[in-house]
Known about the structure:
The complex is a heterodimer of chains A (about 425) and B (about 300).
Chain A: H1 2-25, E1 30-37, H2 40-56, E2 60-67, H3 70-82, E3 89-92, H4 96-99, H5 103-106, H6 121-124, E4 128-129, E5 132-133, E6 136-137, E7 142-149, H7 150-156, H8 164-176, H9 194-197, H10 200-206, H11 210-215, H12 225-239, H13 252-260, E8 266-270, H14 273-280, E9 288-291, E10 303-306, E11 310-312, H15 320-330, H16 333-342, H17 362-373, E12 376-378, H18 380-383, H19 391-399, H20 405-423
Parallel strand pairs in A: 1-2, 1-3, 10-12
Antiparallel strand pairs in A: 3-11, 4-5, 6-11, 7-8, 7-9, 7-10
Helix pairs in contact in A: 2-16, 12-20, 19-20
Chain B: H1 2-8, H2 23-43, E1 46-48, E2 53-55, H3 59-66, H4 70-100, H5 106-118, H6 121-131, H7 138-145, H8 160-185, H9 189-197, H10 202-213, H11 215-230, H12 234-239, H13 251-260, H14 264-291
Amino acid sequence: MLKTKTALTTLTTSFMAVTALSGAAMAQSTTLTMLVDNASHTIAISEALVEAYEAENPDVNIEIETRPGGGEGDNIVKTRLATGQMTDIFWYNSGSLLQALAPQQTLVDLSDEPFMDRIMDSFKQVVSAGEGVYGVPTRPAEAGGIFYNRTIYEDLGLEVPQTWDEFMANNEAIKAAGIPAVIQTYGEPWTSQVLLLADYYNVQNAVPDFAEQYTAGQAKFASTPAALRGFEYLKEVHEGGYMNEDVGAARYEDGLRMLAEGEGAHYPMITFAIPALSEGYPEQIEDVGFFALPAAEAEDTGLTVWMPAGFYIPQTSSNIDAAKQFLDFVASPEGCQVQSEAVAVNGPYLIEGCELPDDVAAPVEDLLPYFENGNNAPALEFLSPIKGPILEQLTVEVGSGFREPADAAALYDEDVRKQAQQLGLEGW
Amino acid sequence: MAASTSMSSAPQRRSPYPGWFFLPAAVIYTVLFLTPTFASLYFSLTRWSLFSSTFIGFDNFVQFFREPFLVQGLINTVIYAGVTSSLKVVLGLLLAVLLTSNIIARGVLRSLVFFPVLVSTIGVGITFTALMHPTNGMINEGLALLGINGPGWLTDPNLALLSVAMVDVWKGVGLATVIYIAGIVAIPADYYEAARIDGATKLQNFLYITLPLARPATATVIILSFIGGLRTFDLIWAMTRGGPGFASDTIASVIYKQYQSGFFGLSTAGNVVLFVLIAILVVPLTMFLNRREGHQ
């Protein structure tokens, strides 16, 4: 282990020597490297930011590398961090996934940087570990809930549901009209978790200290009825026969297409889908609406908020100062404007002084009142460092009718225990 | 030098090469194979994050066996290895008999059978995932023309594992066939001539000459495909990622998922378990398959 480290250091040093030499030849110009995931809107935003930044700073050159998303991408990020091969800046999730990178050991602490004052506390909270704050937001705040097709709603004379029962009644009416009521895309298992995760506002309403108790190992999904409800929703949707026929093989892209083109009425999803919808279906985007996952009682319904990913700097970077300057630009009103021009906005920005353009897409209009009225709360994965990795398989099983909700919740609690032990948390 | 002293202490079987001839190989073997093996044995006893590891004894193994899906993964692995290796033996032997007989376009047919072996496993996986799509895959569309309502090959939890196994057989049977062809071609023609004089039928030729004398080839095919089946990962990952749910998880995919979740120590422990499992199943199998060869 030690030997490998020495060898790596030697390699890095010699590499640095080579770059330093070529740097001198190019008269002070700095080259920064940046790793982002390969989603089209991520690339579009990164390229727009880099282009705008390079225009202002001609001596800086930023090279973008891409990686796959999901678990595969997580592996790449972890491996590159662990072996000291990470780029100068990288794009990665906030919340519990960030905690798995051991930020205190691997990332540069930004808490003393002046630009951090512009970032809202709600975001700082989800990129912090110990005393340090490690990232700046790459996008606006997002939310989990249910996208719906307005044309179908209008044709059938339906109203946006305020309670879960009304939602199920709408599903029944849509099914009777011969349209799949709830689009599910288990060909990409991560998409199956949304019905459960977007219910967290309701869980927190019922059990206000759930996140705290859950992190301490005291509250469990199986024994907390409000938390178990998310698994039951999946079962109810399956038993109603509301889903599309190819649910097992359909992928996220198929889900967006079905929603936009009215091949299905509801798609439980996170609003990061909005840029992809506006880009892929510019004609139909105004037909798409959004509502929060309904609670049992209408007055309890609120929005579960997802924090965006962030830009981070690894401690192994040889250009930390130059990288910080780029982050300063990202976390500025100008940076927000560049982003708004690059891709469709999907929620309010988390940076002070940033304003939304006048013509936001229809689903964003539906989203903003929840932010203005204050009936919103972060998703569980931003309040607790623990998220069990097998949740997506369990939600596929419950949603396909192979497993009972209570059974899945108990298995998930076991998975959560394992994750907490790996993170070395107290009380497990 | 340790190697040369041990050489000289065994005078009756003296190697014609001096001990230091083996040194380069020994160094490569130690650096690339022995060190990682022993390092992984150590790391399987630790809770291992990105930069630090804490020694926790056998906790990882306890956890691994408490893993709710491990038992199913184990059963799936053995089913998968059993199904693929037995089908490769049967189909490989039949194809080899066909391809060593005097048929038209023998060379072309041999190439066709071997062709899938050359294609990337991931590519095969992705192609078959598209072909096996429940509503617009070519297989079910073909069945629909015949009036059959095709199942969800990869989305039905009862079928997913077997569907992947069938693709594995399609891809791997060419190699088994080549091994069998080599084995059959090596059988001296005298036996068949003698049998023809005795008036043996084709079936008798196959049962009493080809089958027993191709036994070394059978042993090779069984062992290679069984080990391959036990550690199978790429095809399963490309086609189902262990899903739907956990229906087609094998030990290798369970291990990979642990690694993916950042449980590095735990997944290393899983690798040690896989290593031991393969040894327990394959060593007796090899001994059994090779035992009767000595009696011939």
